[in-house]
Amino acid sequence: MTNFSMQTKAQPSLNVIIFFTIIYFIALGNHLTAQVTDFKPSGNLWGYVFGDYYFKAHSDTLGRAPAGSPYGSKSLNAKNQNQNDMNAFQIRRAYIGYDYTLSSRFSAQAVLANEMNIDGNGYNTTYLKYAWLKCTNIFQGSNLMIGQMPTSSFATPYGTEPLWGYRSVEKTLMDLHSLDPSTDMGIMLIGNVWQRKTNSDSLPATIGYSAMIANGTGAKPDVTRFKKMRGNIYLNTLHQKLTFGVYGDYYTTQLSPYQISNATLKGYMHFKTDWFRVGAEVFQQLNKNGDIYTTASTAKADTANGMQLGWSVFLSGRLIKNKLNYYLRMDKYNPDTKYNINNIYLSSTAGGNMSTTTFYTQTFYLIGFDYTPVSRIHIMPNLWYTQYNTMMSSDPLTGKELPGRARSDYDLVPRITFFFVFNNSPGMTNNGMDN
User: Given 3.30.70.360, 3.40.1440.60, 2.40.160.10, 1.20.1290.10, which CATH number is that of 15-422?
Assistant: First the structure.
């Protein structure tokens, strides 16, 4: 436990490291550019759209859908998330991107996105999702990226999102629960630590990595002096059929009056054949001084560490090659394994008491089919279901027993999802089994 009166701790600055790293790579990039002759720059305009017709067959009474879900507190459906029988046609994502190759070593990308973000008048808004510059082979096997770019928590190559392949149906586990954004502004090294060139009698293997220092604020401008550090390393083997990966990050958000920081560790695996893919991931995130609480015997507030924990398994496969696929998924999520039923938890933002909607476990199920009438067009009927179970036996303020639907309830949403791609980008993951 940490008292509110604890002293501020000094944090080593990354400014000097970042500054000289950028200067070094600019100088090296100039050297590489000077070696290139007779290159003709080229560009590619591309995009894709996915959305649904959904029917809210049953709504959780307390509106506990994950904030990052299509039916959560940050979605277009937020005002109606507690209502049964809600239905609508909606676009959940529309991308327009442009890839540009400046030279044999330098390339860039810019992407505008509409992702159910709304303004004060309730209209959809578009924002800059990606805008990065990449220098390939900055040193042997490694590329340098700088700008607004995909994060290595799940969105970079051989991460869980491209391996799962069905982002059009739902976000992956960490994204769904808003543990890390899919985009951030910073600098990243990405490439191969080791790659074996083999003959037909042995198994090819690649050890890849990404290392990123970024603002930690996603697509929003940074307003703090703290930076988020991310790292991912993976092994890809068995002729690219089997992938194992480990990811970690660290982010300080506050030093005074007490330090608050998040540290994440994730492991994942994925196996694919021509007819099916199966994979799993598990993560934990330590939220240092993330729990602010009092007890029944004292009104004095204190802090303790929180711990988020979750795991996910998924399966997809072909029923008819290039025409019909299936997909299945199950998630389990606990927002705080350190929760103590005897504590009265406080909100760090509002200063009031946490409600009964705060501490509850979630179990998510997804099942559906993927019909591809022609290449790059997908029609995907699916069923979206989340069960919520509170960790409280009674209201922390009144001491009264919670009503049944506050203890346990669920969201049930049948949907028909559509997804289409135009002028595919080489770096963009297609859907599912790559139809």
Answer: 2.40.160.10
In 87-206, where does DSSP find H-type helix?
Answer: 160-164, 173-176
Nearest in space to 192 (alpha carbons), one of 250, 246, 236, 244: 236
Do residues 171 and 136 make contact, with C-beta atoms less than 8 angstroms apart?
Answer: no
Q: What one-character-per-residue DSSP string does 320-377 give?
A: ETTTEEEEEEEEEEES-TT--TTEEEE-TTT-SB--TTSSEEEEEEEEEEEE-SSTTE
Q: What is the pTM of this model?
A: 0.85
Ranges of each domain in the chain: 15-422
In a structure prediction context, what are the per-residue pLDDT tens digits for the chain, which is 435 residues long? 444 444 444 445 566 666 666 666 556 555 555 555 577 888 899 999 999 999 999 988 888 888 778 887 666 666 666 677 788 899 999 999 999 999 888 999 999 999 887 777 777 889 999 999 999 998 888 999 999 999 999 999 999 999 999 999 999 999 999 999 999 999 999 999 888 766 555 567 899 999 999 999 988 888 778 999 999 999 999 888 999 999 999 999 888 888 889 999 999 999 999 999 999 999 999 999 888 877 777 777 788 888 999 999 999 999 999 899 999 999 999 999 988 887 777 765 544 455 545 678 999 999 999 999 988 899 999 999 999 998 876 666 566 777 777 788 999 999 999 999 988 776 666 566 665
CA distances from 215 to 132, 133, 148, 220, 250 (A): 15, 17, 10, 9, 12
Q: Which residues pair with 101 in a beta bridge?
A: 42, 107
